[in-house]
Structures are given as structure tokens and as C-alpha cells.
Structure prediction request, 296 residues.
Amino acid sequence: MFGNKNDVPLDRDASSRFLPWLIAMMVYLATMSLIIAITMNKLANRWDQGLSSSLTIQIPAEPSAEKRRTLEKQLKTFITKIENLDNISRVEQLNDTELNKLMEPWLGKDILLHDLPIPYLISIELDSSSAKTIDEIKLILAQDIPNASVDDHQRWLGNLLGLTKIIQIIALLVVILVGGAAALMVILVTRMGLAIHRQVVELFHHMGAHDSYIASRFQFHALKLSIVGGLSGLLLAGITVASFSSLLGQANSAILPTLTFTSGEWGLLLLMPLSASLIAMMTARLTVLRSLALMP
Prediction:
């Protein structure tokens, strides 16, 4: 009698209809939150590596042709001095074509740079981030071109990295909250099943069926439903990621993140439905055992 897997007909309950959908929604939210956390971490590292070792020097444009020629000579001298420093990877003065590309999003394609007071821009890349090298560059700049300004990107980069950390923390909190909500939902559904099948459960209990046996009926039922829901949620998350990845690929922007993952990160994402199934199974088991312990 106790060996029949249908001795507690849980598949007929209303919970069997909506629990997989709820689990799917939970897994989808948790997976997307984890993807956001992973992506923001990669994006922050890319920004940090790309900008923490780079400088941009801006020199105001001169109105007269004679002063421009003098300034250009000063720039050549300055660039030569910088190239001779240690820890310098590249020094480049942006030409008109590159300046056009920078101005294009705001001023359009047909820009006449000679009609605009466009400053001179020099891009410097370091082999590694070094406060000493930056101080040396600033000292040389102050001696050769006093009216120039240096942007080491640290101020806005720090704010940007701080924002990404906050987003990561929020995303991970969402994963934790979703896990808690899933456990609470399984508790409610299990109690509903116990209430519906109370007479059958009490009969088994009084006939000497072990509590673990009765609990196993509920835990494997919850496991089956959560596997269906978890895989559905993971599939929906995969479709969402593929759609966003296609859109980001079309944008072709260095600022935007790329939705590519390592094998370890894929493994972490695949843990979402597995974790949901384990949470559902163990929660259902503990809920039933606790309820049976209160029976006379």
C-alpha cells in the first residue's frame, strides 16, 4: 500500500497547475539578476583597466595662426618628453579625423573644424596605472604648456565604478530575496496540499507510515514541479539574453557591455534551476515533517 507513488494524489491539486509557473518566474528573475551582476562586474573591470591607465590632455585652441604654429611646436616638444618617460605605452595627438568622430554625435558629420575653437587633445596610455608617472606628466605640462588641463578620468571613473557596485549588490539581493520568496511559496503550497489531503495523511500516520515516507510524497512532488518550472525560467532567461546580445551587437559600442560568459559563469547560471529545485524539495520535506510532528 505504502509503495504506490499515487497514494497521495498531489497531481490533482490546484497547486500543481500554478506552482511551476511561479517557480519559472522566480528562476527567471534570479537568473537575470545574476546575469546583471556578472555583466556589471565585467563592465566595471573593463572600464577600470581601460581608463585607470590613460590620460587625456586638453590644450585650448589659439585664435591666430602664428600662435597656433608656436603651440604646435610646443606640443611636439611636450610629446617627445613624455615618450621618453618610463611606463609610457603610447602618446598620440588626435588629428582632425579623430576629432570629427568625437564631435559627430553632437555636431553632425559635416563639421568644419577650422571654423570652431576646437582644443588640441593628446591621449596618453600608461603601461600600468602609476601616480608617480601622472605627476611627472603634470609637471612637464605645467612647464611647457601651463594653460593645458589633464583629465585622468579618476573622478568620474570612481563614481561609475561605485554605481556598478551598487547595481551588483542590488542584483545579488534580488537573488537572495527570490530564493526566500520561493521557499515561502513552497511552504504555502505544501500546507495547502496537506490541508486538501489531511484525511489521507492522517490515515497513513495512524497506520504506522513513517513520517519520512509521507514527507517524501510531497518533496518529490515539489521537486518534479520545480524542475519543470526551473528549466522553463532558465529557457526564458536564455531567450532574453540572446535578444539583448543581438541588440548590443548591432549597437557596436565600446561603452556597452557584452553578454558573453565563461564556462564557470554558465555553470553558475545553470545552478539557478537546480537551486530552486533543491529549495523546493527540502522546504516541502521540512514543512511536512513539522506538520506531522504536531499530529497526535
